[in-house]
Structures are given as structure tokens and as C-alpha cells.
Specification:
Retrotrans_gag_dom; 2 domains; rod-shaped; Retrotransposon gag domain-containing protein; mainly alpha
């Protein structure tokens, strides 16, 4: 694409140079005519001869202008066409990029950054108790024991004065790495209470832990 754009720019530059050369030719002819006019002889014969020469030069200049004008118009038309094609190519490239993003991610580029909370609106509307101070939570990255993480999380939140569905809004602060990625990928408003959040979490990570344990046990026997 960069090579194509450079070629188009070179063509436009060449056309502009050709037009400038034509203008210089006309200016040179005008200068020659002016010089001839300054050399006019006072005699009738000389004046007649010079007038004839001037008329011939003028006619020759007009003929050249008549021949060059269509070329200038053609060059200008070609330049406009090249510029239009270049602009069209840029527009087509932008559309191709947008379509590629949409095909790859299943949506428009503007929607890629959108994020919706995985819990319902009524959970989002819950307010923490007066004077509540968020506790320091241990973080789970998907590699430890998910049941132990749940037990530690609930105990820590209870000691800080929260329980039940209030735990849903705090749970994300106890996740990192693969576990955080799992949380972000949950369907919007798919969690309506703490039991559902706990169940989804254990279904995802406890089954993985059992699979890893079986692999480790098999390797140990060998």
C-alpha cells in the first residue's frame, strides 16, 4: 500500500512538472515577442516586415497554446483521478480493517472495550453496612485449592461485617490471573446471588484441580 501511494504521488508530481514546463514555454515566447517589438525599425518596409514576423510568431504561439491546453486539461484530469483513487484506496483499507475486527471478535471495534458486570442489577444496588472497611483478601490465581479459597474468603468477609449476597460484589477483589479472566468472561447479569457465584467458581476451578491431581498421580506412579 505504501508503494502504491508513493507511485501515485510521483505521477502527480510529474504531471505538475509538465504543466510548469508548458507555462515556461509560453512565458519564453512572450519574452521573445517583446524583444522583437523593441527592435522595430522606423522604416515602413522594416515595420511591415517585422509586423509580418510578429504576426507569424503570434500565430505560432497561439497554435502552441491551442495544442498544449488540451494536454494541460488532460494532465489535471489525470491528477484528479489519481487523487480520487488514492482516497478511495484509504477508505477501502479502513473498511477492511473494521470488517476484520468485527469478524474476529464478533462485534464492532467500539464494542470491544465494553464491560458489563456479571451480577444482576439488584446485587449491584446493594450497599455495604455503615462504617464498612474492605478487608485485605487473599487472591486466587486458578492454581490453588478453590474450596480453601472460598472458605477463607467467606471467613474474612464475615469478620469485616458482611455476608450473604454482599459477598458477590467483593469476590472479584480476591481473584487474579486466570481466575480474574474467568470472572471477566462471565455473562452479564448471569449471577443473581452468592450461591450461584460460588457454584460457578467451583465448577470452573475445582474440576481443573481434580484433573491436575489425576495427572500428577499418574506421573508419580511412573
Amino acid at each position: 500500500m505504501a508503494t502504491e501511494a508513493t507511485t501515485m504521488e510521483e505521477q502527480v508530481a510529474q504531471m505538475a512538472q509538465a504543466i510548469a514546463d508548458l507555462q515556461k514555454i509560453v512565458e519564453d515566447k512572450d519574452l521573445q515577442i517583446a524583444q522583437l517589438m523593441n527592435k522595430l525599425e522606423p522604416t515602413d518596409a522594416g515595420e511591415s516586415s517585422h509586423n509580418h514576423s510578429s504576426i507569424s510568431k503570434h500565430a505560432e504561439k497561439e497554435k502552441q497554446i491551442d495544442e498544449e491546453l488540451p494536454r494541460q486539461k488532460s494532465a489535471q484530469k489525470s491528477s484528479h483521478s489519481v487523487t480520487s483513487n488514492a482516497a478511495l484506496s484509504v477508505q477501502q483499507l479502513q473498511e477492511m480493517i473494521a470488517n476484520t475486527i468485527k469478524a474476529q471478535y464478533g462485534g464492532s471495534a467500539q464494542n470491544l472495550s465494553a464491560y458489563s458486570k456479571p451480577y444482576s442489577k439488584w446485587i449491584d444496588a446493594l450497599r455495604m453496612p455503615t462504617g464498612y472497611q474492605p478487608p485485605k483478601l487473599q487472591q486466587f490465581d486458578g492454581k490453588g485449592n478453590p474450596k480453601q479459597h472460598i472458605a477463607h474468603f467467606i471467613e474474612t468477609c464475615n469478620n469485616a461485617g458482611t455476608d450473604g449476597d454482599h459477598l458477590v460484589k467483593q469476590f472479584v477483589r480476591s481473584l487474579k490471573g486466570n481466575a480474574f479472566d474467568w470472572y471477566v468472561d462471565l455473562e452479564p447479569e448471569s449471577i443473581d446471588n452468592w450461591d450461584e457465584m460460588e457454584r460457578e467458581f467451583l465448577n470452573r476451578f475445582y474440576s481443573n484441580r481434580r484433573t491436575v491431581s489425576m495427572i500428577e498421580l499418574t506421573n508419580a506412579r511412573h
